[in-house]
């Protein structure tokens, strides 16, 4: 196994936070003495604080100050409609609120609050999966983190511009064939 493969397999931080994952709430505002003060909603702040407590108990080092890769698996409480006998015992994808991206924001903020990461901008690759929990397990959020590998020299995004240009050219040709001068763009 090469050095790069070893590094890819090694997760430097793994934690499980019990309880329903919470999505990052929209900032709220209040006016005090003619000045607007923004604050995080109580439900979000409480979850971030309790998650940070669990994260701190697992991480006993200085905050990381390097690019990291993070994987998050969020397991929400299974609703009654998915507890029928015919429903599977394993995890089920969740496509309802809170959105996966808001859960991710909350988890990253908790990492910073816990002193695991210096800043959430250091998370250069984040993967999140959003599920209803297994029938026999409770809600939780599992997170793992490792140093990011070197920047890629190329990737799928290189062909994205070519594909878009090709699709636009095809659309323009079909409009020209129709004799329509009113292009949608």
Describe this structure in words.
With 185 residues, this protein is α+β, with helices and mostly antiparallel strands. The protein folds into two domains: 149 residues, Holliday junction resolvase RusA (60s Ribosomal Protein L30, Chain: A), CATH 3.30.1330; 34 residues. It contains four helices and seven strands, in the order H-E-E-E-H-E-E-H-E-E-H. It has a five-stranded mixed sheet, with helices on one face. Helix 2 crosses helix 3. The N and C termini lie far apart (52 Å).
Can I get a quick summary?
By secondary structure, the protein is of the alpha+beta class. Helix content is 33%, strand content 24%.
What class, by secondary structure content?
A: alpha+beta
The strands making up the biggest β-sheet line up spatially as 1-7-4-6-5
Number of helices: 4
The CATH class assignment of the largest domain is Alpha Beta
Compute the average pLDDT.
89
* Approximate strand percentage: 15-25%
Major sheet summary line? 5 strands, mixed
Q: CATH topology of the largest domain, what is it called?
A: 60s Ribosomal Protein L30, Chain: A
Number of strands: 7
What is the string of SSEs from the N terminus onward?
Answer: HEEEHEEHEEH
